[in-house]
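*** Query protein ***
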Amino acid sequence: MANPLEQFQIKTIVPIPIGEIDASFTNASAFMLVAVAAATLFLTLSMRGRSTIPNRWQSMAELAYEFIGAMVRDNVGPEGRRYFPFIFSLFMFILFANLIGLIPYSFTVTSHIVVTFAMAITVFLGVTLVGIIRHGFRFFTFFLPTGVPMIMAPLLVPIEVLSYLSRPVSLSIRLFANMMAGHTMLKVFAGFVVPLGLLGGWAPLSVDVALTAFEFLVAFLQAYVFTILTCLYLNDAIHLH
């Protein structure tokens, strides 16, 4: 039986050594570009006609736009409009990366924590800068909520700081763990289909079909969770509560 973790192996396509740094173009790099290209192509072609009565593709593009727009409005407020392009791009990239990873013999870039952590730390640093730029030193009152007795400050402030610093870790691990676990399960059950033959192979095959349908749902849900948490963090930075 093939190793179910082999699908996550990084393979060099174009070696690019820069001193002691390995900046090679890998299969992960290639599929990140594929995800960006697929999302761009989908949105460009869907909206090219701009019909008054939208076709199916235009309807899906408009639905995605309105879905993220409503998410930003509900969770950040009017101040979040300027950050909509970033949040929408983040959602579309994660969604397409997740969906492309479900294609046989493709590569799931969001199953690598280095990718998810890079996105999470970008969100974390960006949100923190937004808070500091908008509020200056008053931003640090976020770690001591209004109305809390000062006697509680030595205990509460370290807890709040630790909770805040753990955001990129939890954000990245949630996406990485879900995608890696799902794809591993698919590979494990697929590995039993051929060895069990015609009589017993239908059982793991049926499970694999059900898991594939479930993974499509997970692909969307994980993109949604990552994006809505970004909105909530942004709301905290803007409104300090």
User: Anything to note?
Assistant: The longest helix spans residues 202-239. The mean pLDDT is 89.
